[in-house]
Amino acid sequence: MEIDWTIHFGDIMTALGVVVAGLTFVAAYLYGKRKDRETANHENYQRLELASLKVFQNEMDHPELAEVWEKNRSALESGERPLYFYDAFFYQQLNLFEMACSFCLDGELSSDVFGSWVLWFANLCRSPYFREFWTQTEAAQNYIAAFRALMDEGCKLYAGETYKAGSDSQALWAKHHEFFRYVGQHMKLPDLATWLDRT
Fold it and tell me: How much is the pTM?
C-alpha cells in the first residue's frame, strides 16, 4: 500500500484557515485583555479620586484637623479632641494610598497616575503628628509590606519637616526628588525618578 503525499490546494487552504483563525483568536484575546486593563485603570483612578474628595471634605468639615500638619501627637494629646479623631484622618488617607500602591503594583493603575499620589504621600510624611503616629503606634502594621516600606522611608527622609502649603525651598524639593527616586526603585517604576521634572 502506497501513501499519497500529494498536497492539494484545498489542504493548504484548510491549514491556512486554521492558522488564521488561531491568530485571530489570540489577537482578539490580547486586545480584549488590554481593553480590560485600560478600563480597570480608568475605574481605579476614578474611585481613588472620588474617595480623595472625601478626605478633603473631611478636612473642610473639621478645620481643627489642620493642626496635625504642624503639631506632633503629644502636643495634641491634651487637647479637646481625642487622638483617635486625628488618627482616623490619617487612616482615611493611608487606606487610599495603600489602594493606589496595590493597584499600581498589580498593573491596574498607571505609573503616571500613581506619581500624582506620591507627592501626597510625601506631604503626609512631613507632618510631625503623622511621623509619630506611623512610627510609635501599631498603625504601620495594618498595611502591606510594600506600602509600609514607602512610608517608613518617607518618615525618615522628612524627619524634622513640618508641612506648610506652598513651601517650596530647594532643600524640600531635593527631598521630594529623593523620595520619588526611592519609590520608583522600590516599586520598579523607573519613570517616577523624573516624575517631578515633567512639564
Answer: 0.74
Q: What is the pLDDT of residues 38-78, one digit of tens each?
A: 666 667 667 767 666 677 777 888 888 888 888 889 888 88
Q: Which three cell numbers stand for residue 135?
A: 512610627
Q: How far is residue 178's CA from residue 164's CA, in Å, rounded to a whole number?
A: 19
Could you give phi then psi for residue 158, rounded to 5 degrees? Answer: -100, 15
Residue 66's contacts (CB-CB under 8 Å, 6 or more residues apart) are 59
Q: CA-to-CA distance for 183 and 199, rounded, in angstroms?
A: 20
- Residue linked to cell 512631613: 126
The number of angstroms, rounded, from the C-alpha of 30 to the middle of its chain's C-alpha atoms is 25
* C-beta atoms surrounding 152 within 10 Å: 14
Q: What are phi and psi of 187, to 5 degrees?
A: -100, 5
- Measure CA of the first residue to CA of the last residue in the chain; give whole Å: 77
